[in-house]
Amino acid sequence: MFLAGTLIMIMSVLMVAGAIFVSFFATSLEMKISSSCLNLFTS
Predict the structure, then answer these.
(1) How far apart are CA 19 and CA 25, in angstroms?
(2) Among 2, 12, 19, 37, which has the minimal tally of Cβ within 10 Å of its Cβ?
(3) What is the tens place of the pLDDT at every residue in 8-31?
C-alpha cells in the first residue's frame, strides 16, 4: 500500500515538473518568435 502511494506521489511530482518545464519552454519559444518578428518588421 505504501509503495503504491509513493509511486502515485512520484508520478504527480513528475507531471507537475513536466508541466512547469513545458510552460517555461513555450514562453521562451514565444519570446524568441516575437523578437525575431520584431526584428523583421524594424529592419
Answers:
(1) 10
(2) 2
(3) 999 999 999 999 999 999 999 999
